[in-house]
Batch of 2 targets.
Target 1
Amino acid sequence: QKEVEQNSGPLSVPEGAIASLNCTYSDRGSQSFFWYRQYSGKSPELIMSIYSNGDKEDGRFTAQLNKASQYVSLLIRDSQPSDSATYLCAVMTRSGGSNYKLTFGKGTLLTVNP
Amino acid sequence: KAGVTQTPRYLIKTRGQQVTLSCSPISGHRSVSWYQQTPGQGLQFLFEYFSETQRNKGNFPGRFSGRQFSNSRSEMNVSTLELGDSALYLCASSLWTGGIETYEQYFGPGTRLTVT
């Protein structure tokens, strides 16, 4: 049973374009949502967190959350070649009692072409 | 503030051996989670420790175990290594004071384990 799903890609966009990355999740009780960026050979780096419905902007990044549709997305404006990486969606889900865990999607590979 | 550190960074072991990996969380963080990352399966949750207690465990065999010390440093151990255990093992720490915004996890650089 897949709990967090992402398109594996690769998603290819030209430099300067908007890259749109999508993620759906199955646990309606999920409260916290995260986007991580992982360069090849490196560990994941947290780039955005979102906790309530709507948009959250941070520089060129905008996270969007729609809990009713169980959908979270990440927009990258003015994409740069340095944005080329795998983007991982993570969802905080309850795993029993007051315990939680992060469940990750398998990631979307983004390539930004100069 | 220093980030999450993991040692060793690279490890080559033979099938049947055991291995211990170490993780030091960000100062002040009491929650440490361990993950296995492989190309086919992605990031898989192993277990989480908080205040020296295992709070969560993923779907891995009992050969995978861990512990956390009073200074929040954590170790994970894999016994009787199999070829399929070759992976990047990642440790992540979070502040986790109970509020949902304190569950942000920050990853260390990982330990690349190769089993031959």
Note: The interface with chain B takes residues 31-32, 34, 36, 42-46, 49, 51, 88, 90, 92, 95, 98-107 of chain A (CB under 8 Å).
Target 2
Amino acid sequence: GAGVSQSPRYKVAKRGQDVALRCDPISGHVSLFWYQQALGQGPEFLTYFQNEAQLDKSGLPSDRFFAERPEGSVSTLKIQRTQQEDSAVYLCASSPGLAGFYNEQFFGPGTRLTVL
Amino acid sequence: AQSVTQPDIHITVSEGASLELRCNYSYGATPYLFWYVQSPGQGLQLLLKYFSGDTLVQGIKGFEAEFKRSQSSFNLRKPSVHWSDAAEYFCAVAPSSGTASKLTFGTGTRLQVTL
């Protein structure tokens, strides 16, 4: 596709359930980012991949959060034993990763997660 | 630690009026600076960015922003607002080194446009 896509767009989970959120980056983009956007807040960084390597996971709020990008393309953000405070919009962004230049991040529409 | 402050949570302007959205940052060195717009159900779209050089930068949709180092500010402006500009606006910073860097966002300013 032409842009970053995310699925599902909406997810409702009962507290304690595990969820998996998918991101399809722009084809050929090397870098992939996940951000969490709570209601009324700006996005906050969660984790960053360069190809399949997870180079920065400093923003993951707890060990219940896990992200992977096994083939350097599609990425999945998994949240185990969801809690109400996990309710947020999860944004994925990709960038070309061209060496020597700052690369613009292109954002997907997000997945809105509601934990009941 | 780096931070971005957008002091105005909500702004209402009349269509055709001018607009200025404020952004201040706290950073060890001059970072890269960005403004994004987010419409309901849409992803974040980059309006403009500042890396270096001319402190007045032009962006899409008629927006511009001015970097003022002495005030650590990067305010967004538009001379004449259109009803379609109603959205949430985010200021963001990234380290001015490396080619792929995480963004730190402000809390956003919601713009309402009255007809």
Note: The longest strand of chain A covers residues 88-95.
